[in-house]
Amino acid sequence: MTKISACLIVKNEEKLLSRCLDSIKDLCNEIVIVDTGSTDKTKEIAAKYTDKVFDYVWNDNFSDSRNFSLSKATGDWILVMDADEVISASVHDKIREAVKNDEPDAFFLIQRNYTSNNNLMNFEFIKEHSLEESMKYSGFVKNPLIRLFRNNKAIVFSGSVHETVEKSIISNSIKTGKLDIPIHHFIEENDIAERQLKYLAIAEKNLEKNPNGRDYYTAGSVCLHFKKDYDKAIKYLTKAAELDFKKIQALEGVAECLIHKKDFEHAYSIYKELVRSGNASASVCNNLGNLFVMHKKYELGLKYLKIAVEKGSANKKRIEENIRKVEAMMEKKQ
Q: Which of 3, 135, 159, 271 could form a disulfide with 75 if both were Cys (CB 3.0 to 4.6 A apart)?
């Protein structure tokens, strides 16, 4: 029988941990929980589900604590989870079947980050709620992550924040596959701002020693979305783009900062280059269309607003309303 070990790192998760563990206790043969300094009842709750609860001294590095959890797993396969995540019982059999195969040795699952902020890039509205917990949100953003993999010492996490195993997967030529299985992530039920600011502090500390694209991108994204420090965000995201880490997303972030700073000319030049290079997302086309309208270039504005709708923008209704307003303005001028 193929055995699956669930591995979690936790800190002060007493409100969410039981829900997570209830969702995987019948799927996994073993649950490994590494606590990085809880002061609430997290460890007490964890002990109701497993006797493999370990303490780990936090060192501002998520990968180190993740890898410590992997070292304690004895199953054939490892499923990595966070306390604010859930896996529906309806997909347990799919996971059991997947790990019976000889190949691949690691699988991408689809993390669904639930939110009602439909301004986020790649936001998708929920067509049908499969979980009661999701009903308070209007949609989610998908994030494919390798979360299910064979228990192999060569597979390890890297990155102080937003840690992944992908680097070790690639360097060891480990074959991966994709499973259309969602991990339901209720990130907004934690203090998301507090967590993001923690990521920022870690990223900035790392950058002092080792400038790298990943940490520049992390720092820039937090400065843009949570600190509203647009000057710092531009600095960090520009560096990330120069180092070719999520270059397109980083440049979009820079342009968004420039719009907040009302530097429309520079924002336009970035959007124009993204369009020229074939990297115009729905959000780029929407913002570019609005810039054209703002400068009374209505025909160009309409063109890009309509492309944004065609590309499946989550803000379809709002963009269509803007299109109608622009068309009305154009009719008046005729």
A: 3
Q: How many CA atoms lie within 13 A of 134 on its CB side?
A: 22
CA dihedral (133, 135, 140, 145) in degrees, to 10, reads 20
What pLDDT, in 10s, does the model give residues 142-183? 999 999 999 999 999 998 888 999 999 999 999 999 999 999
Contacts of residue 242, defined as CB under 8 A and 6 or more positions apart, other chains included, come to: none
Tens digits of per-residue pLDDT, 89-138? 999 999 999 999 888 999 999 999 998 877 666 778 888 887 888 888 88
- Within 8 A by CB and 6+ apart from 77, the residues are 2, 3, 4, 5, 99, 148, 149, 150, 151
Given a contact cutoff of 8 angstroms between Cβ atoms, the answer to whether 31 and 101 are in contact is no
Locate 238 and state its tokens. Answer: 């520009």
- The per-residue pLDDT for 329 is 83
pTM above 0.85, yes or no: no
Its CATH class, for the domain covering 4-189, is alpha beta
Residues of the chain with CATH 3.90.550.10: 4-189
- Sole residue written with tokens 């520009």: 238
Which residue from 71, 90, 84, 100 is spatially nearest to 4, judged by alpha carbons? 100
Confidence band, pLDDT 50/70/90 cuts, at residue 70: very high
Alpha-carbon radius of gyration of the chain: 22
C-alpha dihedral, 58 to 52 to 88 to 179, nearest 10°: 80
CATH 1.10.260.40 is right for the domain spanning 191-260: no
Model pLDDT for residues 231-250, shown as the tens digit of each residue:
999 999 999 999 999 999 99
Which residues of the chain are in CATH 1.25.40.10 domains? 191-260
